[in-house]
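Checklist before submission:
- one chain only
- standard amino acids only
- sequence pasted in full

Submission:
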Amino acid sequence: MAVGLSLEEVDENVVSDEDFAAAMGIDVAEPSTSNASAAEPDSEQQLPSRETMWAVIQQQARQIDVLEERVDELQADAEKASTARKELAANAHEAKENAKTARETSKAATAKVSQLEAEIEDDGESSNTAGLPGSVDPATSPLDLYANCSPYQVKKRLVDEKNKKNSWRAVTAARRWDEVATRRKNGSGVFWTRADLKAAITAIDGEKPHGTTITRVWNALVELGGSDVTVKERRVSQKQETVEIVAMDMATAEALNEMRYHEFDLLENGTVTGGVTPVVTGRDGSEV
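Returned file contents:
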């Protein structure tokens, strides 16, 4: 305290920190406002309420449940697909083994039969017959022969080897006469119209045939049928137009499904294993 000055006068003459620093050449830092700003609460950065947080947690939990269910569904589908593939492979193997066994059994049969080369070529010619076991009736036509052989062998011969798919369609339509042919009201026989053949080919191929295909199958049915079939015209009433039909008596039609030659092999050269020749005679025993 200066001598002779009052307290108030002393306070008035006190040098401030800024003046002292200036006089001493010292730089004084400006007071920072960052801490103060950080200390002040910001309304936008406040935490959400417990209710809001709980709602968000529940929503996320539901989403997780949905995703877990979807994962389970995908895993189940994958397992089903894997099982289906395994079953398909097993069935294919079993079918292959069954075909092999059937083939071996067929080759071991006592007598085997084949159709005539001329009839395979659809020329409508006949041949002498011989060599069938007494318990097996002879075929009356190429159609009767094919219909009573194994469908697998017939398709292999006509489609795969001979490229005669229309002949195979004709044989199949004849064999399935109970499904596609028209029965006579008196039960004496059956017949096929072009509409019947169209329905039969559609069932065989899985699609509607062209008109030319129907005509070719019609011609094959007539040629293979030989004397077993008759081409006629039919008219139900005077008001209706005449319709062309391929007719067959009931006994002949029923004989198409006797499976007489299922255990026999059809051979390429017109003969059969064991030397048995094909048989084509009339049902009364006379040669066709």
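Reviewer check: The first strand starts at residue 182 and ends at 183.
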